[in-house]
Amino acid sequence: MATDEEIAFIHTEEYINAVKLAGEGKLEKSIAMTYGLGTEDTPMFPNMHEASALLVGGTLTAVDAVLSGKVKHALNLGGGLHHGFRGKASGFCIYNDSSIAMKYIQKKYGLRVLYIDTDAHHGDGVQWSFYDDPNVCTISLHETGRYLFPGTGAVNERGQGNGYNYSFNVPLDAFTEDASFLDSYRTVVKEVAAYFKPDIILTQNGADAHYYDPLTHLCATMNIYREIPKLAREIANEYCDGRWIAVGGGGYDHWRVVPRAWALIWLEMNNIQNISGYLPPEWIDAWKGQAETDLPLTWEDPDNMYQPIPRKPEIEEKNALTVAKSLEIIRNNMTKSLY
């Protein structure tokens, strides 16, 4: 479990105390609301602080496992709570484990971190934690905030002060499909990694860009969840001697999407690739009695999962322009260096 001192790398003492009181049933509702607690997204519950600190501790344990040299990659599916702010809970997130972990990496190991967030919701809490810090570079690939919480993550959110041009946002249009999503992801991650040259990578792996997800409007399939960790590992091997920490995140189709998507991260970390066909029957037998919908039978999604998207060419063109805008300062600087 993370200590109060570790949590305070990011969160204020007043907020930590409020979370503790909320977990003891001692925080007045009017006061709780000022901290983002007691809302529909982040209700108060017993042992709130302890449960949240355990999630943070899992990510810090992953950090130490990698940076002590025990392993090259580490995965904490309980992490990825990227909406947590210094003094406020938001979007199901109380303590921001990724932000705490990256500050922990800076303090204990003195390394530069590349954060890659592919949750359908903008990684706002992490971005604002390091908005003026040139030693943490954040990438967020998400559905445009015009239609989706938290409404931030525009291309022009590039950082401030010394952190300017170390924050990269790619707000994708609603109904974006696999090809455009992956083209955007590969282009931005490769170019930003070459620009920043990180010492370690931390990826947030929300599984809510999938077509089945009930809270978002993207049209991805399991194909992207096979490719996202694959490129992350390639980048880690190229720049970071393999050092890669992955955490979970959003994902609200708990039966058909999240188990497969997150299993693919673990498989990639263990260099088990190209797995396809039927899912393990043991998994289906174990959960089919509890599932609220029919479980998938294969790693892949069916080809006819949804009807053709009528605006596909326009969406792809718009996303390509968004990527170009996100990377324009990097590309302009590269062009100038040639002359």
UniProtKB/TrEMBL annotation:
Gene3D superfamilies: Histone deacetylase domain (3.40.800.20). Pathway: Ketone degradation; acetoin degradation. It holds the Pfam family Hist_deacetyl. GO terms for biological process: acetoin catabolic process; epigenetic regulation of gene expression. Residues 2-267 form the Histone deacetylase domain. CDD domains: HDAC_AcuC_like. Keywords: Acetoin catabolism. GO terms for molecular function: histone deacetylase activity. Belongs to the histone deacetylase family. This is Acetoin utilization protein AcuC.
